[in-house]
UniProtKB/TrEMBL annotation:
Keywords tagged on the record: DNA-binding, Transcription, Transcription regulation
Species the sequence originates in: Aquamicrobium terrae
Origin superkingdom: Bacteria
Protein name, entry field: AraC-like DNA-binding protein
Tagged with keyword Transcription regulation: yes
Alphabetical list of Pfam families matching this protein: HTH_18 (PF12833)
Protein's UniProt keywords contain Transcription regulation: yes
Record InterPro entries: Homeodomain-like_sf, HTH_AraC, HTH_AraC-typ_CS, PchR_regulatory_protein
Length: 323
């Protein structure tokens, strides 16, 4: 799989719905309308995806048996859920949110009229982990299993382009019938693998750098991504996050495997791809919008990153099968 294109993250509530199979169900209820997919991929593993708009103010309550719930909000505003006996858990766009519990829980979420949510997620129940027995301790699944032990536990994965692309592809794909089922099964398994690895990597980096330094690096990335064209200088960025330039540059490379400059350049090119594919800007204009003064330099950078020139984006007319 080719997994690039950073977009949006978070979690939503279609994750507690029982399987309804393929194709996605068209819904129009007194509470919300839109489309919902819930697909039991394997015993103990359910993939869900939704694109719904709420048509009234509602306090939406969900009761769930022991499970791990992982979700990504692709479109929507922050969602605050009150978990009985444990307090509040807030899920944000642009994040992967995980909730785990080893006993039945009930949580409620206030929803506002007119809000639209596009989300993808998975639910892992005990039978999924039981299939792997002691082998779970030897790989990334151990990080996920820990979340369903010891009461109610939560975790956030703040940066995962791979998971974002998986989530988008579940909502937008060209397949139907049996091929669609196979496609979604592969995506659900990829989703679990990427979430497990991302959670494992994040814990490793926190242990290496310390929580405070790790959070500073993540804050620096948030500042950069908030304005990819008018990005601050490294000196200004270091002042804003409260760390010296040398340490910030070193820790940024440890966490993301690239320099600050390389990160900004990559994200600008991904933004340019959206401008070309979805907004149909010219090559020169797309390059200018993301900070390239010369179209030739933009084209060369684009080809190096994506493997093809920016002009090749124009003839494509992708047909999707949205839910």
């Amino acid at each position: 799989m080719t997994l690039n294109d950073l977009v949006r993250l978070g979690a939503e509530l279609a994750l507690g719905v029982e399987p309804v199979g393929i194709p996605p169900q068209v819904l129009e209820t007194p509470i919300y309308k839109g489309r919902l997919l819930a697909f039991e991929v394997q015993p103990g593993l359910m993939l869900s995806a939704s694109d719904v708009t709420y048509i009234c103010n509602q306090n939406f309550a969900v009761e769930m048996e022991p499970a791990l719930v992982c979700g990504i909000m692709l479109t929507g505003s922050p969602v605050a859920s009150d978990v009985e006996g444990y307090g509040r858990f807030v899920r944000y766009p642009h994040q992967v949110s995980l909730m785990g519990f080893d006993s039945p829980v009930r949580y409620s979420t206030p929803l506002r009229q007119g809000e639209r949510f596009r989300s993808t997620g998975f639910v892992l129940r005990p039978p999924f982990f039981d299939r792997f027995a002691d082998d779970v301790a030897d790989d990334g699944l151990a990080a996920l299993r820990e979340l369903v032990e010891g009461g109610f536990r939560t975790a956030i994965i703040t940066h995962s382009p791979c998971i974002t692309e998986i989530a988008r592809s579940c909502l937008e794909h060209p397949y139907t019938g049996q091929l669609e089922k196979l496609f979604l099964e592969s995506k659900a398994l990829a989703f679990v693998i990427e979430a497990a690895q991302a959670l494992k990597d994040e814990r490793r980096l926190v242990a290496l750098l310390g929580r405070r330094e790790y959070d500073r690096v993540m804050y620096a990335r948030e500042i950069l991504d908030a304005d990819l064209v008018g990005t601050p200088t490294t000196m200004e960025l270091s002042r804003r996050v409260g760390i010296n330039v040398t340490t910030l540059q070193a820790n940024f490379k440890i966490v993301f495997g690239k320099t600050i400059f390389a990160h900004v350049r990559e994200q600008r090119l991904m933004m340019a791809r959206v401008l070309l594919q979805e907004h149909r800007l010219s090559v020169a204009e797309a390059g200018r919008r993301v900070g390239f003064s010369r179209a030739s330099a933009f084209s060369a950078a684009y080809r190096k990153h994506f493997g093809h020139p920016p002009r090749s984006e124009f003839p494509r007319t992708r047909r999707t099968h949205p839910i």
